[in-house]
Structure formats: C-alpha cells, structure tokens
Design brief:
This protein is mainly beta and 506 residues long. The protein has a single domain (13-495), classed as Neuraminidase. The chain contains 6 helices and 35 strands. It starts with 12 loop residues before the first helix and ends in an 11-residue tail after the last helix. Belongs to the carotenoid oxygenase family. This is Carotenoid oxygenase family protein.
Length: 506
C-alpha cells in the first residue's frame, strides 16, 4: 500500500469534518455577497445533489452515502445569481422526518435504532435520491442508482413523484446515477445513455438510449456472470464499456441485521478487473477483457483508436471498504492509498483465452496526485479528449481530502492547479462551455467550496483555460452545503427562459 508521504498536512481534520454537519434548512435568496464579477454570458443553472442530512432526529447516519438527498440550484442570469435548495421528498424522507428517527436501513451501514434484533430480516432500503441531478426530456430527475428517479419541478425543486419514464422502468427498477449524454448519438442530435444493474450470482445489465424528448431509441439486456458493483460506465460511438470490479458479496450479515449491504462487499485482489465491451448496435458479440486488479468508481471518458478503446478512469488500489462502527468524519487519510488518474488501452482483437499476457499491460498512470470527480467538455464525450478537470488534493503525494481543482493537458502532460487550502474543501468541478465557443477548454469551471473557518460554502467560478488566475468570482452563501456528490449544468435556453427571465417553454 502506498501511504501518505506528504511532508505536512494541508488541512485540519476537525475543520474538514465540519463539512459533514447536516443542513436541515431550505433557502431561497439572491446571493449578494460576491467577490469579483459573474460573467455576463454565464446564463443557466448549476444543479448539485448530495446528502443534506447526516443525522435523522439526532441519530447519526453511518456513512454520508446514506444521507437524504438535498438538491441545490444556483441560477445565473445577467451577472446575478440566486440560490435555492430543497430536500427530495422521498417516501422514506417524509416518513422518517415525521417519526424523528431512522425507519429504514442504509446501504452503507445506517441501522434502525434497537440493535440487530430491530434490523433482523428487514431488507427494506430507502431510495435516497442523493447522487445526481439531470435535466432531460423536459424532466428534472434526482437520481440514486438503487431505484427509480424522482421527478422535481425545475423552477421550485418541489418533488413531484417517482418517475418511471413513461413505463420504461418497472416498479423498483434502478436507473443509474451516471447517465452519459452522447452529443451525436441520435444522428446529429444528443441522446442520453443509462443503465440498470440487477445484481446476483448472474447479474442482469439493462442499457437504454433516450432521444432528447425522453423517448427510447434502443434498449438491450445482457447477463454478466458474477456479482456486479458498477457505479459508472463509459461510451464511444460504437460501444458501451463497463468495468466489473473484482468484489464479492456475502449477504448473511445484512440478513441478520448486523451490517448494511455496502459493508458486506469484499474486494478480491487476487482476481483481475473484467471489462465488458458491448456493441451499441448490431449483433456483434460482447467482448470480455481482463485488466489489472483495482477498483473504479468513476470514468473520465472513452474513445476509439484503431482496434483499441482508450478509457481514462479514476483508479483505486482496492475497494474502500466500510468498516462497521467507524466514524467517517475522522478518516485517517494516512492509511489510505490515493485514488489516481489512469489510462487503460483495451485491445478489441484480444482473445478470451489469452488473459495472462494482456492482464498486466496497457495501463498507464496519468496523474499520481490524489484526485476524483473527473470532468471534460461535454461535446468531447466519446471522442479523444485533451483536457481533464478534477477535484484534487493539495499535495502531489499521498491521500487527502480534495482541496483544489486540477486541469491536465493529455497532449503535453502539463497541469494547472488552483487550491483552496488550508481551510477550503472542494466538491466536484463542473465544466460549463462558453456560449458560441469551439475550443475544448473554452468555458468555466464552477465548484462548491466549503470554507471551514466560516462554516459556509462558496460558489467559485474559474476560467477553464487558466485555473491559476484564481476565481473570476467567488459567491459567498449564507450557510454551508454538506459535501455533495454530482451535479450538472442546465442552460436557460434548455429551460426555455429568455434573457429577460421570462419562461417561454411550457
């Protein structure tokens, strides 16, 4: 294991942990406390999703991934910005807020009060709607990969209902929290690609493609041998790419009320990661390719290069297993191997029986700095990209909280870095293209930064071409947003809102 060898810490662990305090309040206000100037042509809404409650009626949750989803919307128009947040009113959220205590078990270890007897054989899992938020086919959807999405009002963030996408989803069927938007997937129009996993001894993988009106273009179902824990995937013009991490699942501690399902996953470093390359159209066979053992939550992008598929991903040495009874607020980063940016080359001529020579080659470390939450320009999805933006640790070595934004030039290998250390902690950077631009790095990087000394969050806007100039604008919120997961950008044109602020789309 590669341990943290940084000469000194760039952060205070107590300050970092404060970002995991619950935010029970819902706000609606214009942001007036601003340093710098908001670009006039930044015209749309940044949406963020993540756990807003880290306790239920004073009962702490065991892991932030078990927190109820809270959506934040930062709307930009005419050089001004407005903030609004709402909790997703899932059935579990409404019931537990009324009861003042947990009524459901969490995937990552949160239990109902009363010990194992109170949790014995209770296999109900709450739909948290806490992972991602997207706007597609005139629907604003809060996503959680274990169940159906929740539909929200795009103006007020009010929860409208569970959404089965006009019958596309069966009741209880999952709709992954990592859809991809293929900019040219429906002839010259964009399409949304997403998947569902039904795990088991043989896992069922369902893949959908939806046109920009939300109607299905194609659907396919595939059987994958073994237990699948797949959080993300990648696409190219011809293929879907899924990394099946080498993990196993022992359900008995979950059945017996002792652990959450996420605590029953074990990493098997003796076996390789299996990559499934699935054709998007036609009757070509699925290819299975084995690569180095490791764990991947998030992919940057994939593209085709001759007879190879190149995939950039954030790789972990192993699955970051959840220790029962541990406190995530006091993580010992010194004992963790860093997550890093890797490039995989998948040989499409590789034969199934020829695993040994292929398993240990064609993996390249692109960035050794601890990093996560990768982003690229959305028009480069599925094709060769030059620039990658990531949340990253302050120091070059070791594992640590994300405190800065890193830009990597894959052509030159050069990097740019902006840091909020020692008191700031960043969330996922979101790339927003500049209207009318054609360059891959022409736009802005917008992120939420938790300022621990003031216990509030800032919205920062960086010039994507030159991060090291520092924020073009820093918007100080009146409160903090707990560390979030994923977000997206919706232009006012997509929402049908003109420059005057009048909604024209119905």
């Amino acid at each position: 294991m590669q341990l943290n060898s940084a000469p000194s810490l760039s952060y205070d662990l107590q300050q970092w942990s404060q970002g995991y305090q619950s935010q029970p309040h819902e706000y609606d206000y214009w942001i007036e406390d601003i340093e710098g100037e908001i670009p006039q042509d930044l015209d749309g809404t940044l949406l963020r999703n993540g756990p807003g409650l880290l306790d239920i009626g004073g009962y702490p949750i065991a892991h932030p991934f078990d927190g109820d989803g809270m959506v934040s919307a930062i709307a930009f128009r005419g050089g001004r910005a407005h903030y609004r947040n709402r909790f997703v009113r899932t059935q579990g959220y409404v019931e537990e807020q009324k009861a003042g205590k947990p009524l459901y078990r969490g995937v990552f270890g949160t239990q109902k009060p009363g010990g194992w007897l109170a949790n014995l054989f209770d296999l109900r899992i709450k739909n948290l709607a806490n992972t991602h938020i997207i706007y597609w086919g005139d629907r604003l959807l809060a996503l959680w990969e274990g169940a159906e999405p929740h539909r929200l009002d795009p103006q007020t963030l009010e929860t409208l209902a569970l959404d089965h996408l006009d019958g596309l989803l069966k009741p209880g069927q999952a709709f992954s929290a990592h859809p991809k938007i293929d900019p040219y997937g429906d002839r010259t129009n964009p399409c949304l690609v997403n998947f569902s996993i039904q795990p088991g001894l043989k896992s069922q993988l369902t893949i959908w493609e939806l046109n920009r009106n939300g109607q299905p273009l194609r659907q396919s179902t595939h059987e994958i041998p073994g237990f699948c824990f797949i959080h993300d995937f990648a696409i190219t013009p011809q293929y879907y790419v899924f990394f099946q991490n080498p993990v196993s699942f022992n359900p008995f501690p979950f059945f017996l009320g002792l652990r959450g399902p996420g605590e029953c996953i074990n990493f098997d470093r003796q076996n390789p990661t299996q990559v499934w390359v699935i054709p998007r159209q036609g009757n070509q066979p699925i290819k299975k390719i084995e690569v180095n053992s490791g764990f991947v939550f998030h992919h940057v992008n994939a593209f085709e290069e001759g007879n190879q598929i190149v995939v950039d991903s954030i790789g972990y040495e192993s699955f970051p297993e959840v220790e029962p009874g541990s406190d995530f607020r006091y993580t010992d980063f010194n004992q963790l191997a860093p997550s890093q940016l890797w490039r995989f080359r998948l040989d499409l001529n590789h034969k199934r029986g020829d695993n040994a020579p292929h398993r240990w080659r064609d993996r390249q470390l692109l960035e050794s700095r601890c990093c996560e939450f990768p982003q690229i320009h959305p028009q480069w999805v599925g094709k060769s990209h030059r620039y990658v933006y990531l949340g990253a640790a302050h120091h070059h070595q070791g594992s640590a909280p994300l405190q800065g934004i890193l830009k990597r030039d894959n052509q030159s290998g050069e990097t740019q870095f902006w840091s909020a250390a020692p008191h700031g902690f960043v969330s996922e950077p979101v790339f927003i293209p500049q209207p009318g631009s054609e360059g891959e790095d022409e736009g802005w990087i917008v992120s939420v930064v938790y300022e621990s000394q003031k216990h509030r969050s800032d919205i920062i806007i960086l010039d994507a071409q030159n991060l090291e100039r520092g924020p073009t604008a820093r918007l100080h919120l009146q409160h903090h947003i707990p560390y979030g997961l994923h977000g997206s950008w919706i232009s006012n044109q997509q929402l049908g809102i003109g420059r005057s602020g009048v909604q024209t789309k119905h």
